[in-house]
From TrEMBL:
Coiled-coil positions: none
Function: Removes the N-terminal methionine from nascent proteins. The N-terminal methionine is often cleaved when the second residue in the primary sequence is small and uncharged (Met-Ala-, Cys, Gly, Pro, Ser, Thr, or Val). Requires deformylation of the N(alpha)-formylated initiator methionine before it can be hydrolyzed.
Domain Peptidase M24 residues, every copy: 18-248
PROSITE patterns xref list: MAP_1 (PS00680)
Domain of life of the native organism: Bacteria
Protein name per Swiss-Prot or TrEMBL: Methionine aminopeptidase
Annotated GO biological process: proteolysis
Quaternary data: Monomer.
Keywords: Aminopeptidase, Hydrolase, Metal-binding, Protease
Sites where the protein binds substrate: 83, 184
Catalysed reactions, semicolon-separated: Release of N-terminal amino acids, preferentially methionine, from peptides and arylamides
Keyword Metal-binding: yes
Amino acid sequence: MGFRQPRIELKNNAQMRTMHEAGLVLSRALDAAVAAAVPGVTTKHLDDVFAAVLNEAGAKSNFLGYHGFPATVCTSVNEEVVHGIPGSRVLQDGDIISIDGGAIVDGWHSDSARTVIVGTADPEDQRLSDVTRAAMWRGIAALATGTHVGDIGAAIDDYVSSVPGKPLGILEDYVGHGIGSEMHMAPDVLNYRTTHRGPRIKPGLCLAIEPMLVRGGIETAVLEDDWTVVTTDGKRSCQWEHSVAVHEKGIWVLSAPDGGAEDLVPLGVTPVPIP
């Protein structure tokens, strides 16, 4: 018996340009939230700062109310991997926090995440963030040069495995995804190598590429709030994410003002604006 795969939404150029508009608003909101992540502020304050930028731009949050999620961003601190709920938690010197948010413009979605080390950085936390960020860019570069979505996870896995020093774990329970008229769509974008090549990469494909790495084991659990995912061993974690579009001329990072040029050109990929 054959199984029908979930339909993958392919966007036209005009739709992808609108997604880039959403991505630019999101980038500015993340800039503001990252700048506000200093010792002594609450994670709720970061949410307020992010929301203010969206409101000023006339954009909507795609996180607020999503399956009941109560905030405009996820703030995941230290052992919290993803989906942390902003609240009264006060950031401390040395905390590592992933800020994950999204924006909607004219019905089209963006999704991006950055990791910040608050105040004084533990060198191993800095390494964790640097490797995760670099792995994301290797995955994005693979979207430009590969033939199947599985090439992204293979590139991320190969890079993380090649980094000298203590091995870092790649989470398998949480992965990237398609994005467009909804925030989460087919296909899944794995962050590790498997024998499944995934669907073909073709113009109109838009993906959120988001590796999540940990300093310890990859086992996770969900807290009683039914959202916050933590490492079961209490080791620290990290997430970086960008939304990326494939079009007839190349790729363009929708949530980066320069389309990703600063980080992709050194990897041999020149992003091309959406026609």
